[in-house]
Automatic annotation (TrEMBL):
Residues 80-96, 104-119 have a biased composition (Low complexity). Keywords: Membrane, Transmembrane, Transmembrane helix. The chain crosses the membrane at residues 51-73. It comes from the Bacteria. The keyword Transmembrane helix applies. This is Uncharacterized protein. Residues 78-140 are annotated as: Disordered.
């Protein structure tokens, strides 16, 4: 068998061969995936005709397979492109920043109402007011516990020397239904003669030191209590007068009554 005959047979075999495209494609994919495994070949010489025939057959198979692979590669793959899902656009809405409200305008504070005392306005000083004289010092005031039905006029008397004679007169102006409700003093009650009477449009309280009695130096209190018509009572018409004697002679003080504090 010569070379031409072998070549002719190989050509016929190649033309008649129907390649297994699936197996060829699988082998190509395996070849691309990694290097083929090496197989050990038994040592020994093969006869030239068999070796040549096997080589030509292998060349024909590879040539035919190459054509088949080329056909497969040239065939455009079906349109299997998958469109990646597009995430829906997220719209972020920024809330408008709140506008601070205008601060409320500070209202001008209302003027405080004038304080009204049941005892009425403070009496204005007059030429007749003389609260200090010689060893005497005095002050008249309306008791803070006075109410719209009842009142009390307080007289504070200070003396820097003992008094051998003392007359205290306290006048409560008749402003409406003024009536006696009592009186008191800090000095011993048995040392004084006390009278209460209406005179000259006023309720008059009088304390007279008994003969032989002495008022010691210091501070002493006298008070006249009275009921009156319902409502705030003014004390502008109220007054007091004190006449006393000491080792230095006679002294007189007088004045009005200030509202309760």
């Amino acid at each position: 068998m010569n070379d031409e005959h072998i070549t002719w047979q190989l050509r016929e075999a190649a033309e008649a061969h129907q390649p297994d495209r699936a197996r060829i494609l699988a082998r190509v994919e395996r070849g691309m995936a990694g290097p083929p495994a090496r197989h050990r070949t038994r040592s020994g010489l093969r006869s030239w005709p068999k070796a040549a025939l096997a080589g030509l057959a292998t060349a024909g198979i590879l040539a035919t397979g190459g054509l088949a692979v080329a056909g497969i590669v040239r065939t455009p793959p079906p349109d299997t492109a998958t469109t990646a899902p597009v995430a829906p656009a997220t719209t972020t809405t920024t809330a408008p920043e709140p506008t601070p409200a205008d601060p409320p305008s500070a209202a001008a504070p209302a003027p405080a109402p004038a304080a009204t005392s049941p005892a009425g306005p403070r009496p204005s000083p007059t030429a007749s007011n003389r609260t200090q004289n010689g060893p005497l010092w005095s002050e008249g005031s309306i008791d803070p516990h006075s109410t719209i039905y009842w009142g009390q006029n307080n007289l504070t008397l200070k003396t820097s020397q003992p008094l051998t004679s003392l007359t205290v007169e306290l006048r409560v102006a008749q402003t409406g239904d003024v009536r006696d409700a009592g009186n008191w003093r800090t000095l011993p009650p048995d040392d004084f003669n006390v009278t209460v009477q209406e005179s000259g449009g006023a309720l008059v309280y009088r304390w007279v030191l008994k003969p032989g009695k002495t008022v010691p130096a210091g501070q002493h209190e006298f008070a006249g209590q009275y009921n009156h018509a319902t409502g705030a009572r003014g004390a502008a018409g109220d007054s007091y007068r004190v006449e006393a004697k000491s080792a230095d002679g006679s002294a007189t003080v007088q004045g009005g009554f200030t509202p309760a504090r």
